[in-house]
Amino acid sequence: MQKKELIKLYHEMVLIRRVEERAAELYQEGKIGGFLHLYIGQEAVGSGVIAARKPQDRVITAYRDHGIAIACGVSAKEVMAELLGKKTGTSLGFGGSMHMADVEKNYWGGHAIVGSHLTFASGMALAEQYRDEDGVILCFFGDGATNIGYFHEALNLAGVWDLPVVWICENNQYGMGTSVSRASAVEEIYKKAEAYDTRARRVDGMDVLQVYEAAQEAIEYARKEGPFFLEIVTYRFEGHSMGDPERYRTKDEVGKWQENDPIGIFRNHILQDKIADEKALNAEELAVEQEVQEAIEFAESSPDPEWQDLIDSIYVDEYRIE
Amino acid sequence: MATITMREAISQAIWEEMERDENVFILGEEVGVWGGTYAVTKGFYDHFGEKRVRDTPIAESVIIGAANGAAMVGLRPIAELMTINFAFSAMDQIINQAAKLRTMFGGQFTVPVVIRAVGGGGRQLGATHSQTPDAVFAHFPGLIVVAPGTPYDAKGLLKTAIRSDDPVLFIENATLYQMRGEVPDEEYLVPIGKSKLQRAGSDVTLITYSKMLQLSLQASEELAREGIEVEVVDLRTLRPLDMDPVIESFKRTNRAVIVEEGWRSYGIGSEIAARLYEEAFDYIDAPIRRVAQREVPLPYNRELEQMALPQVTDIIRTVKEVL
Questions:
Q1: Tens digit of pLDDT at every position of chain A (322 positions)
Q2: B139 an active-site residue?
Q3: Minimal C-alpha gap between B127 and chain A (Å)
Q4: Among residues A70, A59, A66, which one has the least CA distance to residue A11?
Q5: What b/e readout covers A236-270, taking b as 16+ CB neighbours within 10 angstroms?
Q6: What is the Cα A305 distance to its own chain's centre?
Q7: How many whole angstroms separate alpha carbon B257 and alpha carbon B260?
Q8: Helices (H), chain A
Q9: Is B166 within 8 Å of A315 when comparing Cβ atoms?
Q10: Of all helices (H) and strands (E), which one includes residue B104?
Q11: Measured between alpha carbons, how far is B285 from A143 in angstroms, rounded to an integer?
């Protein structure tokens, strides 16, 4: 990556972090409803992988999706507006935190039933193959999703049809509050992919550049050969969702991982390699602050969707809805 | 006009739409080399090739999930579920995904998938392979549920379903595949969401669909010999439900019997009866009655299975009760 791209990547990771921090505040103020799953701690995974994609490569993920949306190029404004349920949000305010998509950015959501979207990824990859196009599907999911039937059906189908998909397991150590060792008979998750004859690799998810390089290899392999599996080891610094009592882990454990903050690691790297100086990074951080503030103002002043918008979203063909 | 079977009508609809649109393809268990477990797609694999006629693993979740995913990005998959009972293994994909994706993402994309599923009892297949759970699927906004009762409607409705940008569950009845009916030689489409008067009469309105349409028509012939003129309205689409022809007929006959193959409780008949009470209360001259499956898991034993399923004699008896 060139200097400019590295700074852009840093900006993006800080933006994801700051959007999440402000979203948590807005949730506490009662302005965001439903569930809110924060991406704090996992920024290097989404940013690193998506930095390696080509425009034709589709991205799809689970419910911890705000960071992935931003990494795909969705604006903080649209993310905030969706969180506030506004018409200007990514999904007209009908999806909320867990269902953000922006098809124009080739970002296909934001899916909240664990494992379901892995089968979409297989279907989308089939469409690439069917139309003889060269897009790759980048499918993110958590470690918890590797224990559900969908995971096995989707990996098997992609394997048997040689579909162009990169499976990206964000192993943040816990499916909600249940650790990998308590939920998965196979603790080294990448080995599950080997059961489907899918090439697999484990990567340090706190270093965005390692993630980026691994993703480049995986994406190009998938484009030419077929499915590839990345287990990216990471950690979520916050609870599963807002209001998680976190009885399943200690403060010490969280603190240890926070010493490996992916943004801090990348910042040090930029400074040590003299890609930019402290002053330049501070300026980026200030710009992010401004961007997020504007996003909140935009979201708060945006209109709610109309009842008719909801009706119009159900069917393409015209039917009477009672 | 040619006289063809229901199986041929469905097969022709798929064949014609595949010839018409390169984006239409089939996937499912044994749809290809085998030719379809009910022989609906016999000859397709040889003609269209394995790219467009795709045998899948026995894995219903990913059959419907991959179909949904391919549909989201513009293909037009026809996913076959060997029986509608196996839809329960793909319930999340049908109910949580296909029916909701468009709304949940603010209409950014569509899910033009057709899910073909064979239902119905009476073939001694036991409790898990003999169900008629149509009402379950018809419960959910966002899904379209079609269940034709004649070859003409099956062909025309399936062609419309394949061209529709909305997700359609197309329910076939296995015991109707050999049924014959007239179908035009030229191309035609039948609109989704329109009920149809299948027989005119003045004494009582029978409201029904799918296989029970055929039983209702048989019952009507027998009743006609006794001087009782039955009007038969075929719902054809269960969601969105078109009540207009039902209400119109009921306002003339003032008496209604609803006939369905599924269980009585929380069924199609419950819904139609409630609508009649809500929308045509002043026209009711007799209690609205239902003919439906008795409240048991269907047994293998032939006699007991038939005892549980609605019969022509049940329809005749119930019609006489409301006169």
A1: 999 999 999 999 999 999 999 999 999 999 999 999 999 999 999 999 999 999 999 999 999 999 999 999 999 999 999 999 999 999 999 999 999 999 999 999 999 999 999 999 999 999 999 999 999 999 999 999 999 999 999 999 999 999 999 999 999 999 999 999 999 999 999 999 999 999 999 999 999 999 999 999 999 999 999 999 999 999 999 999 998 999 999 999 999 999 999 999 999 999 999 999 999 999 999 999 999 999 999 999 999 999 999 999 999 999 988 7
A2: no
A3: 24
A4: A70
A5: bbbbbbbeeeeebeeeeebeebeebbbbebbbeeb
A6: 26
A7: 10
A8: 3-28, 43-50, 66-71, 76-83, 116-130, 149-160, 180-183, 190-194, 208-224, 251-258, 262-272, 278-301, 307-314
A9: yes
A10: helix B101-104
A11: 62
Beta bridge partners of B123: none
User: Which backbone phi and psi does A96 adopt, to 5 degrees?
Assistant: 75, -165
Interface check for A157 against chain B (CB to CB < 8 A): the answer is: yes
Q: Residues of B with CB below 8 A from A150's CB?
A: 61-62, 65
- B92 token code pair: 């999340």
Task: For residue A135, give both structure tokens.
Answer: 């897009």
User: Do the beta carbons of residue A85 and residue A96 sit within 8 Å?
Assistant: yes
Contact A122 B96 (CB under 8 A): no
Structure tokens at A271: 């400074």
